Amino acid sequence: MVRHALKKRSKKAGLPPGSLVHIGDKKTEAVTANVLDYAEDHCSETALIEIEQCIVYRDMPSITWVDIEGVHDIQVLEKIGQCFGLHPLVMEDILNTDQRPKIEDYGDYLYIVLRMLGNGSESGDISSEQVSLILGKNFVLSIQEGAKGDVFEPVRTRIRSNKGQIRMLGADYLAYSLIDAVVDNYFIILEKIGERVELLEETLISDPGPQTLHLIHNLKREMIYLRKSVWPLREVVSGMQRRDSALIRESTGIYLRDVYDHTIQVIDTVETFRDMLSGMLDIYLSSISNRTNAVMKVLTVIATIFIPLTWIAGVYGMNFKNMPELSWVYGYPAVWVLMIFVAIGMVIYFKIKKWW
Amino acid sequence: MVRHALKKRSKKAGLPPGSLVHIGDKKTEAVTANVLDYAEDHCSETALIEIEQCIVYRDMPSITWVDIEGVHDIQVLEKIGQCFGLHPLVMEDILNTDQRPKIEDYGDYLYIVLRMLGNGSESGDISSEQVSLILGKNFVLSIQEGAKGDVFEPVRTRIRSNKGQIRMLGADYLAYSLIDAVVDNYFIILEKIGERVELLEETLISDPGPQTLHLIHNLKREMIYLRKSVWPLREVVSGMQRRDSALIRESTGIYLRDVYDHTIQVIDTVETFRDMLSGMLDIYLSSISNRTNAVMKVLTVIATIFIPLTWIAGVYGMNFKNMPELSWVYGYPAVWVLMIFVAIGMVIYFKIKKWW
Amino acid sequence: MVRHALKKRSKKAGLPPGSLVHIGDKKTEAVTANVLDYAEDHCSETALIEIEQCIVYRDMPSITWVDIEGVHDIQVLEKIGQCFGLHPLVMEDILNTDQRPKIEDYGDYLYIVLRMLGNGSESGDISSEQVSLILGKNFVLSIQEGAKGDVFEPVRTRIRSNKGQIRMLGADYLAYSLIDAVVDNYFIILEKIGERVELLEETLISDPGPQTLHLIHNLKREMIYLRKSVWPLREVVSGMQRRDSALIRESTGIYLRDVYDHTIQVIDTVETFRDMLSGMLDIYLSSISNRTNAVMKVLTVIATIFIPLTWIAGVYGMNFKNMPELSWVYGYPAVWVLMIFVAIGMVIYFKIKKWW
Amino acid sequence: MVRHALKKRSKKAGLPPGSLVHIGDKKTEAVTANVLDYAEDHCSETALIEIEQCIVYRDMPSITWVDIEGVHDIQVLEKIGQCFGLHPLVMEDILNTDQRPKIEDYGDYLYIVLRMLGNGSESGDISSEQVSLILGKNFVLSIQEGAKGDVFEPVRTRIRSNKGQIRMLGADYLAYSLIDAVVDNYFIILEKIGERVELLEETLISDPGPQTLHLIHNLKREMIYLRKSVWPLREVVSGMQRRDSALIRESTGIYLRDVYDHTIQVIDTVETFRDMLSGMLDIYLSSISNRTNAVMKVLTVIATIFIPLTWIAGVYGMNFKNMPELSWVYGYPAVWVLMIFVAIGMVIYFKIKKWW
Amino acid sequence: MVRHALKKRSKKAGLPPGSLVHIGDKKTEAVTANVLDYAEDHCSETALIEIEQCIVYRDMPSITWVDIEGVHDIQVLEKIGQCFGLHPLVMEDILNTDQRPKIEDYGDYLYIVLRMLGNGSESGDISSEQVSLILGKNFVLSIQEGAKGDVFEPVRTRIRSNKGQIRMLGADYLAYSLIDAVVDNYFIILEKIGERVELLEETLISDPGPQTLHLIHNLKREMIYLRKSVWPLREVVSGMQRRDSALIRESTGIYLRDVYDHTIQVIDTVETFRDMLSGMLDIYLSSISNRTNAVMKVLTVIATIFIPLTWIAGVYGMNFKNMPELSWVYGYPAVWVLMIFVAIGMVIYFKIKKWW
Q: Where would you find the membrane-spanning parts of this chain (chains A, B, C, D, E) (predicted)?
C-alpha cells in the first residue's frame, strides 16, 4: 500500500509546483458532481452535467455542498479550481491522492485533507481513499477519490429530511458533519478489526501455526497504516478548533471538541490493538517453542529408554565362548525382567522429574 | 473489553451529534435517582420517583447531589437533560459509556467523565463503569452506568453524619470528594492486582507452566486497560486545578492538588507493575528454556553413554570365524570391565565439564 | 515493596481528606522530638518531652530545627500540626509514608517530601523511609518515618561545631543542607549497588547460572524503585529554585543548583546501571545458550561417530549362511581397520568444519 | 558511509575555524560553474571560465543562479567566497561535505545545507552528496559536491522554457524550487527502496536464508542513514517558513508549506519502512526456527520409530540357549508382525498428536 | 568507569558544600600552571612557580589564559580560587572530577565543565578527563585533571604564531576555541571507534565467536559513556549562545553556533553507532544459532540414515531357527543392496526437502 502511493509520486518529480497530474490509478468512469443546496427552509439536489454550473451556487446565501467523485479527469478539476478560485497547490494536493490528513488556511477558504477508510474487499484488507474538503464562506466542496460508495450518506439524509439542526447551521457545521462521518466510520473499521483480533486470539490458543504469525503481522501492518491516517487527523481537528478563522463559528467549536474526543478514542484503540498484537506475538512464539519442546522431549524420552535396553540385548548377543548367563535356564527370562525393570525405573524417574 | 466498547459505537454511526442512543448493554432494572440535599445545618435524602422533581433542587441555595444509576432509559435521561439544561453532546456522552476520562467546560457547568473500576467477579477481572459528573453552581449530578454498588458510600456517610467539613463547603468540594473516592478505589484495585502479581511471582519460581504465561499476559492486558483509565484522569484533575472557572473555588484547589498526587501515584504503580510483569516474562521464558535444556542434556548424556557401549557389544556380536577374543577365557569379563570403564570415564568427563 | 505501600493505602479509602490514619507498620517506640535552636552566636539542643514545648521556638528569631522520629503516634503529630499551623492535608501526607517526593507551597511554609534510602539489611536490599520537611520563616520541621538512624548526623555536627557557614544562614539553607544530605546518601547507596553490579559482572563471566539471572532481575527491580524515588526529586529541587517564595532567599539558589546537579548525576547513574544490567541480561542469555549448544554439539558428535560403527558391527553380526567376509582370515582385523578409519575420518571432517 | 564521513573530519582537528580544507574524496576534474541569469523577459546561460566573473551578476536586478559543481579546488571556492562576501564559517561548511541539513541566517544571505541522494550504483546503495545553497537578495548560489549528475535539471528546463511562474518570482522561489527538486528526488529513492522491500518480502516467504537477513539489515541501515538526512531537513524548511528574513517573501511561504508537507511524507514513509523491516526480521527469525524445528522433528520421529524396532531385533539376536521363541515355526514372521505393528502404532500416535 | 566515579563521591558525603576534597585518583606530580598572555601585538608565555603570580594578569587589559594541570593539590587550588574570586561551589566542582558537562553563570564569570576524551591506552578504551573553564572579562582559566597531554596544543600554536584571528578577539573567543578543540577531538575518538566497529563487522561475517559478543557489548557500553559526555555538552553550548551575559560578545555567537552543529553531529554519530551495534548484535545472535542449527541438522541426518540400516542388520542378526532369507544364496548381497537403496533414498529425500 505504501509502495503504491510512492510509485505514483515519481510521475510528478521535476514538474513545477501546481502542475496538475493525476497520480492515482487510472479510471474510466466519468467524474460525477452532486450539488446539495440548502437553507433552513429549502433543500435542492442536482447532479451537475457541466461543472461550470457550480459558479451559480458560489455566491448564493444558502449553504451549498458540492460533492465530486473522481479526480482522474483533470479538465473537470481545473474548471472547479477556477470556479472556486483555488490555489494551484490545493489543486495539486487534490490530485495527489496519497496526502496525509492536514489543514491549510488560504484566507478565503480552509483546505482539509482526510482519509476515508473502506473495508469492502473480501480479504478484509483496509482500503483508503483521500477526501479533500474546501470550506468556504457558504459552501463546502468535497472531492473524493472516487471509489464507489462513501460514508456521507447519513449526512445527506439528515440534510434532505431536515433531521437535527444541520440545515439551521452554516457551512462550518456541514464540514464538521463530514469529518464526523469519516471518524464515525473509523469505529466501524476498528470493530471489524476487533473481530479479527478476537478470532486470531482464539486460533492462537486452539491451533497456532505459521499462518497465525502471518495474520498477526498483517494486522500489525494495518495498525501501522491506520495510525498514519489517524494521528495527523488529531492535529487537523485541534487545528480547526484553535484557528481564529472567520470561517469557523464559535458555536461549532463544541462539536469539533467532540470529534476531537472521538479521534483520541480511535487512536487509543489503535494503540491498544498494537499492544494486544505484540502480546499475541509473544504468546505465539512461546507456544510454538513450547510445542516443539514437548514433542522433542517425549521423543527423546522414548529413545532414551530403548537405548540402554538395546545395549543389554547387544551384550547377550555377543558370541563369547565363555558366557555363563547364556546357559542358565532362567537366563533369558531374567534378562526380560531386567529390561522391564530398567524401562519402568526410567519411566518412573522421568515422571518424578516431570520430564515426561 | 476493548472490542465490546467498539461494538456499541457502530450503532451510532451516521446519526446527528447529540442523538441519544444508549450503546451499553441493555438492562431492565429501572433507573434510580437519589437526591441528597444538604447545607451546614440540614441534610435530607429522597429517592425520586418522577425525575422532574429534580427541578425543585436546582435553584435552592443548599447543595444538591443527584445520583442517578442506570443510563439505559433514554426518556429519563432526556428529562434530566432538560431539567438541568445540559447540552445535547453532554447527553450523548453520558449514554456512550466508553468515554475516556475528560473534563469539558460548558460555562454554566463542568462536565467530567471518570471511570470507576470494580473487581467484583470471581475471576479477578477488572470491570469498568463510566461515571459522569455535572458540576453546577450548587448541585452535582452524578450519573453511573448502573452496575450494582458504587464507591461513593463513604461520601454519603460523611454528608449524612456531618463528618469532616464536607457540609460546610460547596458543590466543587462535593465533586472533589467523588473524584477522590474513585481514585481511592484505584488503590484497592491495585492492591488486589498486587496480590495476584506476588502470587504469580511465587508460582514463577516454584512451578512455571504455560498457565503462568497466560496469567502474565492477562495481567499485562489489565495494566494496559488500567492505564487507559488513569492517564487521562491526570489531565482531568490538573485541568480542574488550572481552570479559571467560577465553579471551582480557590480553597478547593489544594484538595485537587492532593487528588492529583494520588493519580500520579496510581500511574506510578501501574508503570511499576508493567515493568515487573515484563521482568517476569523474561524470567519465565528463560526458566522454561533452562528446564527444557536441563532435560535434553541429561537425556542426551544417557544416550551418549550407551551408544559406545552398544557398539562394543555389537563388535563382539559379529560372526567372524576368526575372532580370537571370543575364545579367551576372560574375554567376556574383560568386555564387561571395558564397558564399565568407558561408562565411568564418560560420566567423570561429563561431570568435570559440568555438563551433567 | 510496592505492594506493601499499596496495602497501607486501603485502610484510608473513604475517609475524608485530612483524616489522620497512620498507614505504615505499627511501631511501639515512643516518638522522639529533638530541637536544635541556633543562631550565629549560640546553639542549644533539647530533647522535647512534651511536644507542645515546640511552640516556644516557633516565634523566636533564631533558627529552630525540630527533628521528629516516628509518625505512628497520631496524638503527638496532631499537637505538632496545631503548634505549627499545618494544613490537614499536610498532616495526612506526613502519615501516608508512601508519598513520592514533592514540594507544595502553603504560603506560610513549604512542604517537601523526600525519600531517604537505607542499605542496612544483610541482603543488600534498599530500604526507603519518607522524610517530610516543613520549611517556615525561621524554622525547619523534619519528620522521619522513624527507622533507626538517619543521614542528617553530619548536618547536626556542622551546626554544633559551627563548621561552614550553616549557622550564619537562614532556615532555607538548613532545608537545603538536609536535602543535600539525603542526595549525598544516594551516592553511597549507588556505590554499594555499583559493587554488586561489578561482582555480578565477574560472576557472569566465570560462572553464570540461574542464580545470576535472579540477581540481575533483583538489581533491575531496585533500579526501578530508585528511579521512582529520584526522578520526582529533580522536579522538587528545580521547583524550589524557580519558586518565588519569600521563604527561599536568592543566595540559597546557587546551592540548590548544586544539589540539582547532584540529582541529575544520580539519575544518570541509575540510567547507566539500567543499561548495564540490560546488557548483562543479554550476555547471560547468550552465554547460557552458547553453553548448552556446546554440550549438545559434542554429545551429538560422539553419538554420530558411534552410530555408523554400530551399524558396521551389526552387519557382521548377521547370520546369513553365505557371508564370505566372515570366513576370511583377516576379515575381523579388516573390520577393525575399517571402523577406525571411519571414526578418524569423521573426527577429521568435524574438526575441519569446526563443529567440534 | 558513516565512518567515511568521520575520517575526513580528523584532517581538520585543531585548525582555526574558517580554515578551508577540503575533506571529501580528492577529485581531479575541474570545478565547473554555470550561471543562469533570468528575469521575466530574458534568460541567459553562461559557463564561467574565470570564477571572478560572478561579480558581474551579483548586483544586477535580474535573478542569478550560480551553480558550482565540485568543492575540491580551494582557490576557486575562496574566490567565490570573496565575490559574494561569505563568512569563513560558511566557506568551511561548504568544504566539510558531511554536514547535516541546516539553515543559518547571516543577515545578507541565508545559508542552507541539503543532502542530495543518488542511487546510481549497481548494488542499489544510496549515495549522498552535500548541496549548499546561498540565498541572497537576487541570487542563489548552489554548490554541489560534484558527483556527476544532479536533480536540478527540471528546474533549469523550467527557467529556460519559461514554464510555470518561476521566472516571474524572486530568488527565494528559485531556492524553494531547488529544495523541492531535492525532496522530490527522495520520493524516487524511496520508490526504489520500496521495490527492494517488496522483493525481499517475497523472498522471505519463498526462500528465506542467511542472505535475507543481511539484506534486511542493509536496508535497515540505509533507513538509519536516510532518516539522518531527512529529519533535520524538516527543521530547515519549517525554519525557512518561520524566519522573518527579508529574503523570503510571504508569497513563497505557501510553497514552503507544501515542501514541508512532502518532507513529512518522506519521514512517514521512512518510518513505515523501518516498521516493516522490523516485522520482516521477526518473520525471518521465526520462519528459520520453524524450518529447523520441522526438520529436527521429522528426523527425530524416524529415529524414534527405529530405535524400539532395533531393540526388538536385538532381543532375538541374543544367544541364550533357552529361548523358546527362536524355535517356534512362526517365531520369525511373528517378530516381523510385531515390528510392523509397533511401527504403524507409533506413526499413528505421532499423527494423532500432530507431531509429524 | 561509572563505579569509579561513584566511589570517589562517598568521601565527601556529609561535608558542608564548598568543602575542598579532591576525590580523584591521588597523584604525586606537582600541579603545573602555564600562563599565556596575549594581545593583538604581543604574546608572552610563562610557567608559574608561585600560583599567586596569577593575580598580576587578572586585571591587565590583555587576554590571559591560565592553564592548570592537576587538581590534586588543594592548597594550590585554594590560592587560585582566592586569586580569581571563585565561589566555593565552583572550587568544589573543579575538584569533583566526575561532573557532567554544564555551564553556570556567576555574574563576574561563567563556569563551564567539559569532558575531554583520550584514547591513549593500548586496549582502545576511552579515558575521560574533566576540564573546567572559567571565563572572566579578559581571562580564561582552564583546569585539567592532569592526565598527561591535552587537546589544546593547536590553540596554543595558533596564539603563539598569531594564526587566524584568535589574538584579535576576546576571552570569549578563546573559551570557544578551547571548547571547539575538545569537540574536534571527539571526532578523532569517534573515528577510532568507527575503525573498531568496521573491524568487528568483518569479524562478525568471517568468524563470529563469544569474543565478538563481548566486543559488541564493550563498544555498546562505551557508547553509553560517550553519550553521557556529549549530550549535556549540547545544552552547554546552546546555553552559551542564548545567555545574555556580557561576557560573550555577539560576534562569538556565530562560532558557538558552529560548535553546536559539531556537537549535534557527534551525537548523531554516537546514535548511529548504537543503532549499528544493535543490528550487529542481532546478526551475531542469529548467525550463532544458524551455525548451531546447521551442525545439528547434518549430524541428525547422519544418525537418521544409519539408524534404519542398523535395524536391518539387527533383523538378520536374530537367531530364529526358521529364517529362510538367511539360507538364500543371494540373501547377504540382497541385504546390502537393500541397505544401499534405503541410504540413497533417504539422502535423496533429504536433498529434495533441502534439509541437508
A: 298-318, 330-350
E124: left (phi over 0), alpha (psi -120 to 50) or beta: left
Q: What are phi and psi of A143, to 5 degrees?
A: -120, 110
What's the CA gap between E145 and C64, in Å, rounded?
41
Q: B309 contacts in A (CB within 8 Å)? A: 311, 314
Beta carbons of B191 and C6 less than 8 Å apart: yes
Contacts of D261 in chain A (CB under 8 A): 93, 99-100, 102
For the purposes of burial, counting CB atoms within 10 Å of the CB of A59, is it exposed (0-12), middle (13-18) or buried (19 or more)?
Answer: exposed
Tell me the chain D residues in contact with residue E311 when contact means C-beta distances shorter than 8 Å: 306, 309-310, 313
Residue B191 and residue C7: Cβ atoms within 8 Å?
yes
Quick check: A6 and D269 CB within 8 A? Answer: yes
Ranges of residues in chain E with a pLDDT under 70 are 1-14, 23-28, 119-124, 147-148, 355-356
Of B10, B221, B225, the CB nearest to A279: B221
At residue A353, φ and ψ (nearest 5 deg) are -75, 0
Q: What is the pLDDT of residues A270-312, one digit of tens each?
A: 988 888 888 888 888 887 777 777 777 777 888 888 888 888 8
Cα(C193)–Cα(C215) distance, rounded to whole angstroms?
A: 12
Distance from C-alpha of A9 to C-alpha of D190, rounded to nearest angstrom: 10
Are C155 and C162 in contact by the 8 Å Cβ rule? The answer is no
Query: Complex ipTM, two decimals?
Result: 0.77
Q: Which set of grid coordinates corresponds to residue B115? A: 471511570
Distances (CA, A) of B110 to A238, E177, E289: 20, 59, 61
Question: Measuring CA to CA, which residue among C99, C132, A268 is closest to residue B264?
Answer: C99
Distance from CA of A73 to the nearest CA of B (A): 30
D298 or A352: which carries more pLDDT confidence?
A352
Query: A13–D188: do the CB atoms touch at under 8 Å?
Result: yes
The dihedrals phi and psi of A343, each to the nearest 5 degrees, come to -60, -50
B226-239 pLDDT, tens digit per residue, is: 888 888 998 889 88
Residue ranges with strand state E in chain C: 32-38, 43-48, 63-69, 102-105, 110-118, 127-135, 139-144
What residue ranges in chain A does DSSP mark as E strands? 32-38, 43-48, 63-69, 102-105, 110-118, 127-135, 139-144
Point out the residue among C98, C104, C326 whose CB comes nearest to the CB of B320.
Answer: C326
> pTM for the whole thing?
0.81
Per-residue pLDDT band for D123 (boundaries 50, 70, 90) equals: low
Q: Rounded to an integer, what distance in angstroms lies between the CA atom of residue A253 and that of residue C322?
A: 102
Residue D179: what pLDDT?
A: 93
Q: What percent of chain B has pLDDT over 70?
A: 91
All structural domains of chain B = 2-286 (3.30.460.20), 297-352 (1.20.58)
Are B53 and B66 in contact, with CB atoms under 8 Å apart? Answer: no
Report d(CA C184, CA C169) in Å as an integer: 21
Q: Could you give phi then psi for residue A66, rounded to 5 degrees?
A: -100, 120
| B320 closest CB neighbour out of C6, C221, C316 | C316
User: In chain D, which residues have their Cβ closer than 8 Å to the Cβ of E255?
Assistant: 17, 89
Of D217, D285, D326, the CB nearest to E321: D326
Q: What DSSP state is assigned to residue B246?
A: T
Region B213-228 average pLDDT:
85
Residue C28 has what pLDDT? 65
The reported pLDDT for the residue numbered B1 is 44
Burial class (CB in 10 A: 0-12, 13-18, 19+), D49: exposed
Q: Which of B163, B272, B317 is nearest residue C313 as measured by Cβ atoms?
A: B317
Min Cα separation A15/chain D (Å): 7
Cβ contact, residue pair B17, A310, below 8 Å:
no
* Torsion angle of C-alpha atoms B178, B180, B184, B189, degrees rounded to 10: 60
